[in-house]
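Following up on my earlier message about nicotinamide-adenine-dinucleotide. Here are the inputs again, as you asked, copied directly from the submission form:
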Amino acid sequence: MSEAKIIDGRKFAAEVRRGVAAEVAALKSAHALTPTLAIVLVGDDEASHIYVRAKGRQAEEAGMATLEHLLPRETPERDLLTLIQRLNADDTINGILIQLPLPAPIATPKVLAAVDPAKDVDGFHPINVGRLWSGAPGMVPCTPYGCMAMLKATLNGLAGLRALVIGRSNIVGKPMAALLLRENATVTIAHSKTRDLAERCREADVLVAAVGHARLVKGVWIKPGACVLDVGINRVSAPDKGKGKTRIVGDVDFEVARKVAGHITPVPGGVGPMTIACLMRNTVIAARRQRGLPDPAI
Ligand code: NAD
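Thanks, got it. Here's what our run produced:
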């Protein structure tokens, strides 16, 4: 059996970013519109700060404007809601991103539901969730969108394929399942209470792992020739790199799985880069729709 083809997320992401930058340049010259993304971060979670910096950097590289609101951990929920209302009402803001997780006791669903659905570039507002499941145009969450873009570019159609999504979060698992269903795959969602995960994996032509558990999916569980997308980001110790060193691995045992799968995303360099690129894409889409312009072909 030959080795799996690697799905190069960095390459896909670079292509999306190029398309976004071209679209932004066109909006500026033809419509005097600079797509603008407001990023709201509450608290001092280190990973969140790294993500926010990366998002801001990529937005600016694409020619967009960003406005960062870095709020202290103890920010009251009502202040956050007031800020969101202000951003909703501000016509110069096209996209609003609330970096998750929000610190307790802030009620995340309440905050996400306060964002104007037209500016909801993460696609987490209940109206956009409903649109996704009912097949209406809306904002699609970035990680599943990126996964679907790579799947479509890799496979010759998904109709009738058996797809397994491991994980049922609102951010990845559920919207991923909705997108696969939209492409006529036969979709199973596995989660923490699933009893026969190995069996479900063995049946899957397409496997999307979004759990957050290092190497949970064993290579021998993969159906030969399957297309495997590994969303997981897990930091594990890496004694081979030196004492106290760590590395990032996915939810799939990559080294074994790559000998069985037909296609597979690496971690890092797979799904991750596409997520931020798709956020940029969503921001351009939001800006265009707010001006009554059709969606771009990015
Ligand atoms: P989450 O914690 O919200 O959800 C995890 C899901 O895994 C839950 O639905 C749970 O039921 C399921 N689960 C837990 N243990 C399981 C088990 N033993 N068997 C089967 N299912 C099990 O996490 P999330 O926000 O969906 O993120 C999942 C992973 O993806 C994390 O590692 C996260 O860091 C990563 N992530 C990556 C990107 C990216 O851009 N690459 C984006 C978002 C999330």
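One observation from looking it over: The mean pLDDT is 97. Hope that helps, and feel free to reply on this thread.
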